[in-house]
Design goal:
seven-stranded mixed beta sheet; alanine--glyoxylate transaminase; aminotransferase; Aspartate Aminotransferase, domain 2; 2 domains; binds pyridoxal-5'-phosphate; 13 helices; alpha/beta; 15 strands; about 425 residues; single chain; four-stranded mixed beta sheet; EC 2.6.1.44; Aspartate Aminotransferase, domain 1; about 40% helix
């Protein structure tokens, strides 16, 4: 049945749509942190639809809030009219952002959010020059593909903006890898200065960065890097955009926004994924003078619609009511220490923060990316009832991003499967 659906998928959907697994899964039911496929098999979900079902599945408080909005009959009339829930959610996000005089614009996805940030920054600065991090991913719109620094996801090379890439986001394969944290930061800042002085005309609009690279393999630079970089940017009026599409809403445990680990307030932040718990929502929160930089009318037909607003408001309430930021920190530490203790020779690095945990797989005793092992791990964990993610520049990084509601027992269950699957993969490939 899946074979037949896969053949039909291949026939009418683009060849470049990424699918996981040799035999891709069709999910037909989901509850709490588990999903069931069309053959009736249930899996513990450690990827949550790419960190999207952040609260888990079928959460009564969220479903009820969405249903209540649907029952009003106001599914979507238009964002041309006043929408109370949109104003209220924007007020909350503006306050949470810590950005002075912040304003919010809602979109339907992370790509649109980043595209909007690019449009605002380039308009505000009257420049189409942008800086991005090596190994970054910012979406699949024409503008965001252009600044993505990861070959595997750079689907178009015809860029509407001029981009230069700087070091810093991905330490494991950085030429500065062996340096101390402080020296690493100094080297990355020196690289930024060098790029600004030698590769740009100086009038750069913004630097866009993920506090922890998501698609790039859950790689986090040392805390403080982005504060040091922002000091350089501030000297030239260059804006700093933090892409919080994966790192927002407390998922990193220690902070509500990933960028807060760096002790700096960005000029803009973009968000999506986890805020909707599966509903399509994204947005930009930024300095009011930057957000207001457009001298024309603009709306997003669906961005900020009442159903998405109802769901997102319920998600924010749920995060606060259940202290999920603290849960992310505790469960993340449980996974990190359990995986480090396993000490499997295939694992070159266990890294991450909160419930963004990455395992970079290598050929034992080297740093050579082990793509075969990553592929095998996906199948071995699936066979044991666990869904995980994969990514990284070389497609050799396992990514764990379970719902933020993960329990201690579920973390332990996933951990045991991962350790067992690593041993099986090592044995199979030795
Ligand atoms: N930014 C980051 C950091 C992401 O991880 C993603 C998606 O994976 C995006 C932007 C694009 O978001 P979307 O797929 O909702 O357009």
């Amino acid at each position: 049945m899946t074979d037949e659906l896969l053949a039909r998928h291949r026939a009418v959907l683009p060849s470049w749509m990424a699918l996981f697994y040799d035999e891709p899964i069709e999910i037909v039911h989901a509850q709490d942190r588990r999903v069931t496929d069309s053959s009736g098999r249930t899996y513990l979900d450690f990827f949550a639809g790419v960190l999207t079902n952040s609260m888990g599945y079928d959460v009564a408080e969220i479903s009820d809030a969405v249903r209540k909005q649907l029952d009003t009959g106001v599914l979507h009339t238009s964002t041309l009219y006043l929408i109370r829930s949109q104003v209220e959610l924007a007020e909350r996000i503006a306050k949470l952002s810590g950005i002075p005089d912040a304003k919010v614009f809602f979109t339907n996805s992370g790509s649109e959010a980043n595209d909007t940030a690019l449009m605002l920054a380039t308009q505000y600065r009257r420049s189409n020059q942008v800086l991005a991090m090596r190994n970054s991913y910012h979406g699949r719109s024409f503008g965001t593909i252009a600044i993505t620094g990861n070959r595997g996801w750079s689907a178009s090379s015809l860029s509407p903006v001029k981009v230069n890439y700087v070091h810093g986001g991905y330490r494991y394969r950085s030429p500065f890898r062996e340096l101390s944290d402080a020296a690493y930061i100094d080297a990355c800042v020196a690289d930024l200065v060098d790029v600004l002085e030698t590769a740009t005309a100086g009038d750069v609009a913004c630097l866009v960065a993920e506090p922890i690279q998501g698609v790039g393999g859950f790689s986090a630079p040392p805390d403080g890097l982005y504060r040091a970089m922002k000091e350089v940017l501030d000297a030239s009026g260059i804006l700093f955009v933090s892409d919080e599409v994966q790192t927002g809403w407390g998922r990193t445990g220690s902070h509500f926004w990933g960028i807060q680990a760096h002790g700096v307030v960005p000029d803009m932040m973009t968000f999506a994924k986890g805020l909707g718990n599966g509903l399509a929502i994204g947005g930009v929160v930024g300095r009011g003078d930057v957000v207001d930089a457009i001298n024309a009318q603009s709306i997003s037909t669906f961005g900020g619609n009442p159903v998405a607003m109802a769901g997102a408001t319920a998600v924010l309430d749920y995060i606060t009511d259940h202290n999920l930021q603290a849960n992310c920190e505790a469960r993340g530490n449980q996974l990190l220490s359990g995986l480090r203790a396993a000490d499997n020779p295939l694992v070159g690095e266990v890294r991450g923060k909160g419930l963004m945990v990455g395992l970079e797989l290598v050929e034992p005793g080297t740093r050579t990316p082990n793509v075969r092992a990553a592929k095998q791990m996906l199948e071995e964990t699936r066979a044991r009832g666990l869904l995980i993610g994969k990514g990284g520049l070389h497609n050799n990084v396992l990514r764990l991003g379970p719902p933020m509601t993960l329990t201690e027992a579920e973390a332990q269950e996933g951990l045991e499967i991962l350790v067992d699957a690593l041993a099986a993969t090592h044995a199979a490939l030795s």
